[in-house]
Design goal:
Blueprint (H helix, E strand, L loop, with lengths): L21 E2 L33 E6 L1 E3 L8 E7 L2 E6 L5 E6 L8 E8 L9 E6 L10 E3 L2 E3 L9 E3 L2 H5 L32 E5 L10 H18 L4 E3 L17 E6 L6 E8 L2 E9 L2 H5 L1 H11 L24 H20 L11
Helix pairs in contact: 2-4
Length: 362
């Protein structure tokens, strides 16, 4: 059936895998984390001078910022070999170069450390152990901002501190439970998101066999709730389409593309999550236990944030900290983390950094 602008929809837990597509995020626990996918383009910045064993080598590269990381001239890049440090400060354009008298032996390792030279940290410091002959890892370190400015929407003008340890932190200790996974914790080495060109994502209602109809009133309330989330994130997230625009939809409500929303008595109170192909989110399903939960703003907008590719968090005041009907809106922290995710994604896909979102010392 068609989801008109009056008929928007959402979900509250997970989605199953389809063919070769990898299932990702859930508020329940019916999905599996994806296999690692490398999406970084081939290196474009100059490579360092090739060293001779036992000689000083020139360590050079360029910092890759994701967001506002402050003055580049405060950033020190260090290679640590045992008790010896070899380091240099970056230039204003993010380039750096220094000599390191480190013997080359594949059995040896060194620590790559990228941090501020002094004062407060405006980015997450890097600490990565690499092979002593691994020149690739230090060429383009990825600096991820610790403070995110929200330029528009409900929280326009706010600057919010978001740390990677908070964004990746699980909300409960059960490592086997997908519901415990953190806000960014479904990522591998790179963000796993809908491409920016996918917005607004097509969404339609799907009627399961034996399930009640989604009424025009249900739809009007659902789309009003979606509009509130779009105002908070300052992005047109979803657009109504006919169910046929999503391709073949399985009896369990999984589409070929876009987002399918349905009523399913097995979802309690709701389930939602996306699936990925080739490192990008491409489809999702949302299931509400009944029409009442479909109308519930806290539940549906929580599930739609799962659809966008994010897990749970209690690291900041968040709509994604479990299920609470008392909180109905995405918070400043949720919006800042959403924006940070796309800043990281843009840096990864356009500047080919040689460290990842997992190479941070918290």
């Amino acid at each position: 059936m068609r989801a008109s602008r009056f008929y928007r929809m959402s979900k509250f837990r997970g989605v199953g895998a389809v063919a070769a597509v990898l299932v990702l995020v859930a508020c329940g626990s019916e999905v599996s984390p994806p296999a690692p996918t490398s999406t970084s383009p081939s290196p474009t910045s100059p490579s360092p001078t090739s060293p001779t064993s036992g000689s000083a080598r020139v360590i050079s590269g360029r910092l890759v910022p994701a967001g506002d990381v402050g003055a580049m001239t405060r950033v020190r890049v260090t290679l640590r070999s045992g008790a010896r440090d070899f380091s240099g400060l970056a230039n204003s354009d993010g380039t750096f170069q220094f000599n390191a008298d480190i013997p080359i032996a594949t059995a040896d390792s060194v620590d790559l450390i990228v941090d501020v030279d002094d004062g407060p940290r405006p980015f997450a410091p890097i600490h990565k152990r690499i092979a002593s002959d691994d020149s690739a890892s230090y060429r383009r370190p990825l600096l991820i901002s610790s403070n995110v400015h929200i330029p528009s929407g409900t929280y326009a003008g706010s600057t919010v501190a978001i740390t990677l340890d908070g964004a990746f932190a699980p909300i409960c200790p059960d490592a086997a439970s997908l519901s415990c996974r953190g806000f960014f914790d479904y990522w591998t080495d790179v963000p796993l998101l809908w491409p920016t060109e996918a917005f607004p994502i097509p969404l339609a209602f799907f009627r399961r066999e034996g399930a009640p109809d989604i009424t025009p009133e249900d739809s009007a309330i659902f789309w009003a709730n979606v509009a509130s989330l779009e105002g908070e994130l300052a992005r047109d997230l979803f657009r109504p389409v006919d169910i046929g625009a999503l391709g073949a939809v399985t009896p369990s409500g999984v589409p070929e593309r876009g987002v399918a929303v349905s009523i399913d008595a097995a979802a309690s109170p709701a389930l939602g999550g996306p699936a990925a192909n080739n490192g990008r989110l491409v489809l999702a399903r949302v299931r509400a236990n009944n029409n009442v939960w479909l109308r519930q703003r806290a539940v549906m907008n929580h599930e739609l944030i799962h659809v966008l590719g994010f897990g749970h968090t209690c690291a900041w005041d968040s709509l994604m900290c479990g299920v609470s009907l008392a909180k109905t809106s995405a918070t400043r922290g949720d919006v800042a983390a959403f924006l940070l995710a796309y800043l990281i994604d843009d840096a990864v896909r356009t500047q080919a950094p040689t460290t990842t979102v997992r190479d941070y010392h918290f």
